[in-house]
Amino acid sequence: MKRIITYLFLSFTLLYFGNVKAQIDDTAVLQTYVHTGEIAPTTSSKTVQNVKIITFKNIERQGAFNLKDVLIKELNIRINNDNILGSSMSLQGISGQNVKILLDGVPMIGRENGNIDLSQINLTNIDRIEIIEGPLSVIYGTDALGGVINLISKKAVLNRDKPAQLTGNTYYESIGQYNIGGGGVVNVNKLMDFSANVNRNFFSGYNPDKSSRTMVWKPKQQVFGNFSILNEKGKLRIRFKTDIFNEKIENKGEPVINHVEAYAKDQYYITNRLTSSLSLDYKRDSSTYENLLTSFSYYNRDMITYLKDLVDPNLPPTLVDNRESQSRNYFLNFMTRGSYNKQYNSKFNYQYGFDININSAFGTRIESDKGKMNDFAAFACVEIKHLKNFNIKPGVRASYNSRYPAPFIPSIQVQFAGVKNLTIRYSYGKGFRAPSLKELYLNFVDYNHNIQGNGQLKSEVSNNHNLTFRYKLKLNRKIQVFIDNGNFYNHIYNQISLVSLNANINEYTYMNIDNFKSIGTNLNLSLQYKQLNISAGYAITGIYNNAFKAINEYKYNYSPEGRSQISYAMGKKKSKTTLSLFYKYNGKRIGYSLSDTREIVQTKIEDYSMLDFTINRPMHKKKLNLTVGCKNIFNVRNINSTGSLTFHSTGNSSMPVSVGRSLFCQLNFTL
User: Fold this and answer.
1) Is the pTM of the predicted complex or chain greater than 0.70?
2) What CATH topology corresponds to 2-670?
3) Distance in angstroms (rounded) separating the CA atoms of residues 613 and 9
4) What are phi and psi of 5, to 5 degrees?
5) Contact 477, 572 (CB under 8 A)
6) β-strand 52-55 against 507-529: which pairing, if any?
7) Residue ranges of domains in the chain
8) pLDDT digits over 21-73, tens only?
9) 304 with 282: CB under 8 angstroms?
C-alpha cells in the first residue's frame, strides 16, 4: 500500500510538470536579504554563492518545532537518530561534524559524537534558516568544511506607536509530545526594545512493549529561553542577546531480579547550554559597514545513575557512586569576530576582518581533566563586477591554531548572468577542521560506551567544488518556472572516524583513516498555478573512502533522494486556508567500514519514504495561526541497517527513524 501511494504521489507531481502552465511567485524568497558569508546584506537572487532559504511561513506550514523537523525534508541532507545522543545530519554526504551551525552568526557548541543534536534547536523564535552547501572556512574557520546553517532570529523591533506585543504558542502531537511557550516585546521610551521568550517541550517517551519499563524512545523534557535588548539610534545598532537551554533525558534500565533483590539502574542525561552575544553594527555611510560580534558559550552534559529498588517503589533511588556511572563535562567558547565592509560602487566591494576563538574543556571524562585549543585568524575577500555579466569573489584566510598548523585557506566564487534568464554560479573552497577537544581528550566509559580520545590526531583538510545553474523559463509576461541544478565534489584528507580497538570490550577511539570523497547532482523545479504551488526535486550522492580501496573497489556508491512539496491555498485573500503535502524519499545507502574485528564489511541502510499532510489557517486578522495535520503517514518506525556501528540502536539490524504515524495541532497567536 505504501509503494502504491508513493507512486501515485510522484505521478501526480510529474503530471503537473508536464501539463500545467505555471506562474511562479518566488518574490518573497528572492527578495529576502542574506547575511551568511556576505560582504553586505544582499537579496538571495544577487548573491555570488548559492543560498537555500527556509522562511518562517514554510516552517509554520510544516508544523515544525525543531531543526530536525525541517532538515529531514531537504535534498542533500540525511538525518540519523540516536535515542540518547539525538538527531545528527550529513550534508552532501559529509557528516555533521563538518557542518557549522550558527545562531545569528554565533557558532553553537556541544557536539555529542561529533554532531550537534538537531532536536535541541528550537524554531519558535526563528525568522528564517539560511543553508550554504560547501566550505565557508574563509569566513567561519574550522567546522565549516562541509557547509554552514545559519538560523536568523525574529527581529524584536516594534512599531513605535505600539508599546508592547505578546506572543504565545502551543503544540500537541499524539505520540506524547506537549509544547507550550510565550513571550513578548516591550518598547521603552521609543529608544529600546526588550524581548523575552520561554518554551517548554515535553515528550513522554515510547515503547512498543507496554509491559517493559525501558523505552525505545526516551522521555525528554526541554526548556528554551532567550532575552534580548535592541537599540537602534542613528548609525549604530546594538543588540545584546542571551539564549539558554536545558534538557533532561530519562533512560530507565532493565530490571535485575534474583532471589535476594529486584532493582534497576536508571540513567539521566542532563544538558545545559548558554550563549550570550553582543553585536555592534555601525553604518558609517551608505557604502561603509562595520560589525563586531562577541559571544560567550557554555555547555555541559551530566550523566547521573541511580539504583531503583523495585520491591519497594516508595524508597528513594540511591546514587551509584563510581566513575563509570557518573560524569560531568564542561565546554567553554569565547568568540569575537570583527569586519570592515566597503562598497566603492556597483563594480567593487571588499571586506576584511579578524576571528578569534578560545576553547576549553574539563570534566570527569576529559583526559588530564583539562583541554584547551585556541584559534586566531585574519580574513579578507573582494567582490569584483567590472567584467560584464560576471561577479567574482575571491577570498583568503590566514590563521594560527594553538595545536595544529593551519593551512592558508583560499576560496573563489563566480556568478555569471550573460545568458538570458540563466544564472550560473561556481565556487571553490579549501576547508580545514582541527580535531575537537572531545576527539582529542574524551575518555567516555559507561554501560553503553567505551570511547578513548586520541591526542595524536591530524587535522582534516578538504577541497570542495560547487557548480549550480538557475534558469527562469518565461511562458508569457506572467507565467514563469524556475529550474535549479546543483553539482558538487568534495575531497577530505585525513578524515577522522571512530574505529574499534578491542572487540572484546567494545573499545573505540578516533583515528585518521579516511581519504573521503563525495560527488553528486540534484535537480529542482518550482512553479505556481493560481493558488497551487508545487516544487519537486531529485538528487543523487556518491561516496568513496579508503575502505573501498582496501577491497579493490574503485567506484562510488550512489544513493538517490527525492523531494516534493505541494500546497493549495483556498478562501479569502487575507485568510486563506492552505493544504500542504511534504514528501521525502531517502534511497538505499551502501558503503564499507571497519567492523569490531577490524575487518572491512559492507554497510547498508534500506530506503524509506516520509509523507506529511498539514492544514494551515490564519484567523482574526492573522493574530491567530492554526496548523493541524498528520506526520509520517507511511508509519515508518525502524528500517533495516546492517554493518553500521551505533551505540543506542534498537537492534543490530535496524535503525530508528521515527516513533510512528501521528496527528498534531499547533496554535500560534500574537496580541
Assistant:
1) yes
2) Maltoporin; Chain A (2.40.170)
3) 12
4) -65, -40
5) no
6) unpaired
7) 2-670
8) 333 344 445 456 666 767 666 766 677 788 889 999 999 999 999 999 999 99
9) no
